[in-house]
């Protein structure tokens, strides 16, 4: 008996009179379109129940073939995402590629799951399994799981629930999710009186809120205080020196030299006063070394 060619594929089956359909994929080592409804009848228990109660489906179609199982599985996720987005009532698909997490659950189903798990104590093995759930996945499973999470995140009810759960910190007026609120805001907020000695890093450039300037200034102060008195090791100095070797060695034309010298002279004419050490400096030096970064800043405050 000749061995069939390995050819993963996606398929569509359905009961047109019931307006119920199922979209799936076969990607195992024995995958071949000739198997559909001859030796392969899907792995869905819902399809099995429909076959027992309503008979064989009248729609059996091979939709697309692939040269690798990864491409087939990713295409299935893409199609199911679009199908369930348009109308999820007529589709029997509950999970993607056999992953246990459901794509859509009714509120009644969620309540049952919640009641069943309340008060249960998780074993150490259970906790370890939860921590290593993603780490133990294959690359294909990670891609599928990532697509599934994106599908869930796009649901309107999930978006609405997340937005309602957000809180406003009374100290910095930032709208934040509950997890970050408990860790970094409320009583732990950087701008709360009495929390001045708490060390924290400066925020990223992408942060957008009214008091960003205050937070950035405080972050710079804390960073500067953390670096005071530290001495760089010889290894650190050599690393800095080696990283700068060969830079700015491209020869410049006479025109470029003249233009750069004119720009430099113009910049040197502009002087600004540092309010903490009472000295005048170029604007670039004020930004880099003075203002709230000035060594005299701590004494003044």
3D structure, described in words:
The protein is mainly α. 44% of the residues lie in helices and 10% in strands. It has twelve helices and seven strands. The strands form three sheets. The protein has a three-stranded antiparallel sheet, with helices on one face. α2 packs parallel to α5.
Which SSEs are present, and which pair or pack?
Layout: E1 9-15, E2 20-26, H1 45-54, E3 59-65, H2 69-86, H3 107-117, H4 124-131, H5 139-153, H6 156-165, E4 167-168, E5 175-176, H7 178-184, H8 212-227, H9 234-244, H10 254-269, E6 271-273, E7 280-282, H11 283-289, H12 297-300
Antiparallel strand pairs: 1-2, 1-3, 4-5, 6-7
Descriptors for this entry?
single chain, about 300 residues, mainly alpha, three-stranded antiparallel beta sheet, two-stranded antiparallel ribbon, about 45% helix
Please work out how many helical segments DSSP would assign. Answer: 12
Distance between the termini: 88 Å
Helix share of residues?
A: 40-55%
Mean pLDDT metric: 77
Shape: elongated
Short précis:
This protein has 301 residues and is mainly alpha-helical.
């Amino acid at each position: 008996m000749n061995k069939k060619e390995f050819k993963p594929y996606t398929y569509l089956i359905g009961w047109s009179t019931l307006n119920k359909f199922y979209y799936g994929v076969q990607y195992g080592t024995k995958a071949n379109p000739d198997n559909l409804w001859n030796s392969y009848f899907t792995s869905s228990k819902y399809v099995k129940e429909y076959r027992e109660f309503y008979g064989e489906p009248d729609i059996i179609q091979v939709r697309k073939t692939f040269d690798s199982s990864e491409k087939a599985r990713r295409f299935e996720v893409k199609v199911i995402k679009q199908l369930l987005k348009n109308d999820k009532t007529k589709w029997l698909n509950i999970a993607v590629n056999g992953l246990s997490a459901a794509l859509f659950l009714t509120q009644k189903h969620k309540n049952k799951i919640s009641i069943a798990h309340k008060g249960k104590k998780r074993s150490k093995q259970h906790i370890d399994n939860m921590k290593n759930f993603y780490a133990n996945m294959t690359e294909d499973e990670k891609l599928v799981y990532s697509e599934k999470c994106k599908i869930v995140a796009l649901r309107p009810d999930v978006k609405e629930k997340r937005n309602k759960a957000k809180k406003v910190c009374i100290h910095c007026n930032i709208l934040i999710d509950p997890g970050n609120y408990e860790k970094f805001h409320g009583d732990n907020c950087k701008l709360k009186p009495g929390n001045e000695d708490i060390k924290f890093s400066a925020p990223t450039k992408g942060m957008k809120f009214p008091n960003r300037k205050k937070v950035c200034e405080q972050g710079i102060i804390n960073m500067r205080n953390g670096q005071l008195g530290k001495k760089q090791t010889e290894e650190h100095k050599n690393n800095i020196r080696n990283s700068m070797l060969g830079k700015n060695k491209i020869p410049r034309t006479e025109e470029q030299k003249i233009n750069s010298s004119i720009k430099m002279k113009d910049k040197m004419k502009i002087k600004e006063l540092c309010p903490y050490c009472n000295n005048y400096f170029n604007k670039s030096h004020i930004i880099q070394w003075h203002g709230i970064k000035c060594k005299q800043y701590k004494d003044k405050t």
